[in-house]
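Record type: ASSEMBLY
Status: queued
Input:
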Amino acid sequence: MSPLLSARDLTKSYGVQPALRGVDLDLHEGEIVAVRGRSGCGKSTLLHCLSGILRPDGGQVHFRGDRLDDTSEAYRSELRRTRFGVLLQHGHLISELTSAENVALPLMLGGGSRRAALAAAATWLGRLGVAEAAEQTPGQLSGGQLQRVALARAMVTQPAVLFADEPTGALDTLAGELVMKLLGRVAREQGTAVVVVTHDATIAAYAEREIVLLDGRLDPTGLGVAVAVGA
Amino acid sequence: MSASYVLLGLLARGPKHGYELKQAYDQRLPRAKPLAFGQVYSTLGRLERDGLVTQAGQDQAGGPERTTFAITGDGRATLETWLAEVEAPAPYVTSALLSKVVVALLVADPARATTYLSAQQQAHTGRMRELTRLKSEQDLTVGDLIAVDYALTHLDADLRWLQTALHRVADLHREVQS
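Status: finished
Output:
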């Protein structure tokens, strides 16, 4: 089976500082992959290159066989709105809008009617157990509710790939567990592939496999550090 | 030994015979090392000898006759004392994992140490994945969830410690070499 999303030999530098030094990754439909590694190892840069937020300096990204990295910003933006979902550590909901409006927004931006978008938002809020938060604004929600609303917003377009960057980093253990269980469940039900960046092994354990980065490269040992001995 | 106290705790909720105790033990501590029937009866024998439980009749509900046991006043007092005792944090750190990692970093060459540590890390993450799948996919009892959390949290602690140890040694090497 050909991969849904594939990256070959990705490189990216910030000024003279290399962040990615030749990373390969294949992501298949419905698969959950965790990306781990020490701070500054290139995890978030990889996520941004895969999702088209950043254009890599070298290498290629293909989505469903089509090259993604050399397309226009407008095309990549469109892809992010329609085929990719993004879940960040702090939800990044719009504080002036209600939960339902936040979740409906990606559909309305895609040209859907307000009524249909709000109906879809209500369905998703219900699926994620936060129907009661529909008319509340983000400031009125707990951290766990906020992330579930953000997950609803990321999933409402039924994306092919969900990119999650430290999605439970701001939550306590049980709230984080609930978000990861729901994320795994809805991703499986929708056949959505997930790339989850995390430093937390208990979160990475929700993935079917993990890759570890060390100084911008894949670390096949999985340790994320060059082992030194004789201390 | 804690099995005696667990049996006293189970009896504190009402009299039971050996078979019911074994079932209740397995239900409350589902991921613990299973308690053999023989151990249930030998423990009950010791508790009876010490006056902490007493025979409270025979139960023959559709099967062989079984002796029912009840906790005594002394048994309740002993249970209360045990519950009130703080489990002292271990004064010395000992574990096979700690010893092996320290020795690997001490005597192995970097390639061999990496091979061993990588395999160890993968064994831990593999087990964490199994336990997480269990927790996500099955309807577990609260007892099960608590036990799985205990196992996961300890595996996670091992991994965090391993990572920190490797980073410390790597940082030290960089400092020495610079």
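Annotation: The longest strand of chain A covers residues 17-27.
Annotation: The helical segments of chain A are 43-50, 73-82, 99-109, 114-127, 143-155, 173-190, 201-204.
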